[in-house]
Amino acid sequence: MRKPCCKKKETSYYKGAWTKQEDQKLIDYIQKHGEGCWRSLPQAAGLVRSGKSCRLRWVNYLRPDLKRGNIDQDEEDLIIKLHALLGNRWSLIAGRLPGRTDNEVKNYWNTHLKRKLMQMGVDPKNHHLRQPGTNLSLVPKNQKIASGTQDWTGLECNNNFANSNEVNSTTSCSEGNTVSSLPDLNLDLNIGLPLVEETQC
DNA sequence: AATTGAAACAACCGCAGCTTC
DNA sequence: AGAAGCTGCGGTTGTTTCAAT
Predict the structure, then answer these.
(1) pLDDT per position in chain A (201 positions), as tens?
(2) A122 beta partners
(3) A168 with A189: CB under 8 angstroms?
């Protein structure tokens, strides 16, 4: 049986929004000791949070390399393309967007892009073009498809391969499916090993 | 100015997969 | 081999903000 890396002790953790003081404690601790061993981190850092919560806070909001702010058109297009290829694999998608997190991409998808695709008559689940007329009533009259977004007609790539971890640049849609609407799609989907500062628990 | 509903964002929960013993 | 711990991911929910009425 594996030895726990820290004394297991169930505490009633704080939940809800993080305070500035908590953020600072977490930042200070990680700057000193690096990431890793999330379970023991809270106690070591003087936080009354679960390791999970600390990890999430760091990964999604405190990491210095995060690019905060609006997602631009290029990023949006890339998200759509990657989602067509990978499905809801947000961490993989976020990995192709420097400075963006899986949570951010997921939220953006759910709040912006899903609706946008539906308005365009595209099923956001599989990126298939819906039957003409379906849901098109959602599109305001005279509204053109946003600039920078392609006509997704013909996008019929199934996502079977997305269930495989072997996502790489040679992956392509199976016969009969087409990504003809993605002419500039040149994705290197090799999963690079992250530069992790090794820390021993 | 107050109310209400929608949109956007932040955080939690549960589960799966990997690692260790 | 399998049980248990840990981490990371994806789904979901809660809270805040903003616009419309």
Answers:
(1) 444 444 444 456 788 889 988 999 999 988 888 887 888 888 888 888 988 899 889 988 898 888 877 888 888 888 888 888 888 888 888 888 888 988 889 889 888 888 788 777 777 777 777 665 444 333 333 333 333 334 433 333 433 333 333 333 333 333 334 333 443 445 454 444 444 444 445
(2) A129
(3) yes
Distances A28 to A6, A44, A61, A180, A186 between C-alpha atoms, Å? 20, 11, 14, 49, 40
Which one, of A59, A121, A49, A122, lies nearest residue A90 by Cα? A59
Nearest CA-CA partner of A157 in A146, A171, A170: A171
Protein-strand C interface by C-beta, 7 A:
A 1-2, 4-6, 8, 16-17, 36-39, 51-52, 55-56, 59, 88-92, 102-103, 106-107, 110, 201
List residues bridging with A129 in a β-sheet.
A122
